[in-house]
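Minutes, project huddle
Topic: does the predicted pose make sense with adenosine-5'-diphosphate bound?
PN asked that the exact inputs be recorded in the minutes so nobody has to dig through chat later. Recorded below.
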Amino acid sequence: MIAVHQLSKTFNPEDGAVLDGLSFELPAGETLAVIGPSGCGKTTLLYILAGLSAASAGKVNIGGRRGRGHTAFILQDFGLFPWKTAAQNIALALELKGANAASRHKVAETLLTELGLEGLGQRYPVQLSGGQKQRVAIARALATEPDLILMDEPFSSLDALTREHLQNTMVDMWQRKGLGYIIVTHSVEEAVFLGRRIAVLTDRPTRVKALIDNPSFGTADLRFKNCFFDRIREVRRVMEG
Ligand SMILES: Nc1ncnc2c1ncn2[C@@H]1O[C@H](COP(=O)(O)OP(=O)(O)O)[C@@H](O)[C@H]1O
Ligand SMILES: [Mg+2]
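Predicted holo structure (C-alpha cells), as shared on screen:
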C-alpha cells in the first residue's frame, strides 16, 4: 500500500509551493498513471516517493515486503552506462552488492529473455535502438527486485509503435510479477492504457484534481474498444475543466 498524505514541497519560499497538500492512496501492486501540466511537480513527486528528495510537509508511506518498500526509478533518457554492455547494465545493482559473476550472468540472461532481448546482452547501449535501450533500463530496474517502479515519462522519446510495445511489456511485467508502478506521462492514451488509477494534477500549487478509476486498463485489445476512448474523453474533460 502506498499512502501519500497532504504532501507539500516548496523549494524557494518566494516562488511559492510546488506541491500543496497532495494526497492519494494506492493498494500494493496496483498501477497509477500521473498526468498534469508541465512544471506542476510530477518529477518532484517521483523524487520524493523514491526517497531522493525530502518533503516540506506531509507523509509518504510505501509499504513493502520488508518494511519500507524498495523503489526503482526508470528515467526518460534510459540512464544506461555507455561503457557497460546491456547485460552489465542490467546486473549493475547485483555488482554493487558484490554478487559473483555467475549469479549476475544468470539474472541478466533471465531478464534479457523476459524483455525480448535475447542475444543482445553483449551489445553496448550505442548499438541498441531506443526501444531496446528502454527495455534494458526496465530489466535493470527489475533486477533490483523492487516493490514499486517509478517511471518519469519513460517512453516519450520513442516512436508510437515502439511506445505501445513497451506499454504492453509493462502490463505484462505487472501481471507476471504483481509489481506496482507509477508512471508520469504527458499522454492521455498512455495514462488510460497503463493506469489502474489515473491521478490528474492541477497547476501549481499542485494538488490531485481527480483520481479516476480505470478497471479496464491494460487489457489486450483495449486500444480498439469504445471504453478506451470513453475514458480518454473523461480524462480530457477533467484536465480541461
Ligand atoms: N531542485 C530544485 N530547486 C528549485 N526548484 C525546483 C527544483 N526542482 C524542481 N523545481 C521547480 O519545481 C517545479 C516543478 O518541477 P518538476 O517537478 O520538474 O515539474 P514537472 O515534472 O511536472 O514538469 C518547477 O517550477 C521547477 O522549476
Ligand atoms: Mg518532469
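Observations noted during the meeting:
- The CA atoms of residues 114 and 139 lie 8 Å apart.
- The two ends are 30 Å apart (CA to CA).
No decisions taken; revisit at the next huddle.
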